[in-house]
Amino acid sequence: MKNDIKKILESVKNGEISVEDALLELKSKPFKDIEYAKIDFHRKVRQGVGEVIYGASKTANQMIGIISTMLENGQGSILITRLNEDAAREIKKIHSIEYYEEAKIGIYGPLKKPNGIGKIVVATGGTSDIPVAEEAALTCEFLGNEVVRLYDVGVAGLHRILGHLDEIMSASVVITIAGMEGALASVVGGLTDCPVIAVPTSVGYGAAFNGVAALLSMLNSCASGVSVVNIDNGFGAGYTASMINHMEVKK
Do 166 and 239 sit in the same domain of this protein? Predict the structure, then answer.
């Protein structure tokens, strides 16, 4: 995936802009201070993806200000995570975001056309894990990935996941999302040759300790190729999966 720096350098190479103009474009306005936030405009240049807004604990007015500043500086697509319905309703009065209630995600602008090297599978142990899974899946789609959703395929009925071997074995990345004992990650890790990103959820009875039991199970997985993100961190899993699915050979 060509990032902005490559495009600028190619423009210099092709004689479309001068070295001085390219340097100015790279150096100018790395961030803007709007008192309660410093908006990082070079995030996309450094990482390939613009800054994402973490909506928890932010007021609707603060997010409106952040979105406005991003749009004024050329960021056409914006992802907001952990966004509650009341704040989304207020933001919609100013900016036309699409709100996904189950995932608690808001998106400004169209989803990117999938341009990854393959498909990302998002699989959950149970229906109760779907909100976290949707956060992961929508993050992947926002970042330009084709997503295959396999929900409620946990190990309590092993035939359910075994019925989707074709999807799992042909994936570029699999995100497994489970609470309780978190065993799904190990099962999937033993079935596929691609990276598996495990997401423990806070689903489960008392001794599940709000996801700690699943987290420890996933960290202790005997299947190779399984990596683990934090409890309920669907966004982090989706972001990492997208990076894997957009890897280029670096010369």
Answer: yes
